[in-house]
């Protein structure tokens, strides 16, 4: 019950005040699965790409973090070929930084930040990490080509990069949920993501005090 109420409130907040470049909606066939899309940021190899993400909500949410993975292939040192993401916000302490005060919006925003600012010192893909560190131009070119091949022309967002929406449609791309989300070689810690999570936590606290959900879907 608590998970369901929390999820409805968060989806409503994402519809009312979505983070720039992010869209999120509930899978019409699975109540514990969300579909999201992130637009690649300007001046990154992912610029113009539309990246689909699957977010699975555990029974004990928000006391356990959601599980997120990329459905759209992406060339990135912290995201593997199966879409798994090395990110501290997706892990429980002490290895991770998840707290019940965080939410789906802050997770998606942190993933968006990770796309723009990879952490090659804590990779899931060692070869891409080495390329990023020692031959960055080659990495950029490969990431651009990957984006062009897999991430263009699949947007469910409205009218460009500065508008987002939340809808009831499901993603055309389907993928089996990977039950093994442990990353023994990935700590997931980045200073930038921790700063963003701290800011999101403060904003979440302000939002919870200042406005009550209305018109819950």
Automatic annotation (TrEMBL):
Domain UBC core: from-to ranges: 2-152
Into which EC class is this enzyme placed? Answer: transferase
UniProt-listed Enzyme Commission number(s): 2.3.2.23
SUPFAM superfamilies this protein is in?
UBC-like (SSF54495)
Top-rank lineage group of the source organism:
Eukaryota
One GO MF term, please? ATP binding
Task: Provide the active-site residues from the annotation.
Answer: 86
Note whether Transferase occurs among the keywords: yes
Which CDD domains does this UniProt record tie to the protein? UBCc_UBE2T (cd23805)
Q: Which UniProt keywords apply?
A: ATP-binding, Nucleotide-binding, Transferase, Ubl conjugation pathway
Whether S-adenosyl-L-methionine counts among this entry's keywords is no
The record ties this protein, via InterPro entries, to:
Ub_conjugating_enzyme, UBC, UBQ-conjugating_AS, UBQ-conjugating_enzyme/RWD
Location of region: Disordered: 178-217
Report the sequence similarity comment from the record.
Belongs to the ubiquitin-conjugating enzyme family.
Designated name of the protein: Ubiquitin-conjugating enzyme E2 T
- The record lists the organism as Ciona savignyi (Pacific transparent sea squirt)
């Amino acid at each position: 019950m608590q998970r369901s109420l929390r999820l409805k409130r968060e989806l409503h907040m994402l519809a009312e005040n979505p983070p720039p470049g992010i869209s999120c909606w509930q899978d019409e066939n699975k109540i514990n699965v969300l579909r999201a899309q992130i637009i690649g940021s300007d001046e990154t190899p992912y610029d113009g790409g539309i990246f689909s993400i699957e977010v699975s909500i555990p029974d004990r949410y928000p006391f356990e973090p959601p599980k997120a993975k990329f459905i759209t292939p992406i060339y990135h040192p912290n995201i593997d070929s199966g879409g798994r993401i090395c990110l501290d916000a997706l892990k429980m302490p002490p290895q991770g930084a998840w707290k019940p005060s965080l939410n789906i919006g802050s997770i998606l925003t942190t993933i968006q930040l990770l796309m723009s600012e990879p952490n090659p010192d804590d990779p899931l893909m060692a070869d891409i990490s080495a390329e990023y560190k020692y031959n960055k131009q080659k990495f950029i070119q490969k990431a651009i080509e990957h984006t062009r091949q897999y991430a263009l022309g699949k947007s469910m967002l409205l009218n460009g990069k500065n508008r987002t929406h939340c809808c009831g449609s499901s993603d055309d791309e389907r993928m089996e949920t990977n039950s093994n989300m442990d990353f023994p070689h990935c700590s997931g810690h980045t200073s930038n993501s921790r700063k963003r999570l701290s800011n999101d936590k403060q904003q979440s606290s302000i939002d919870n005090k200042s406005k009550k959900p209305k018109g819950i879907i």
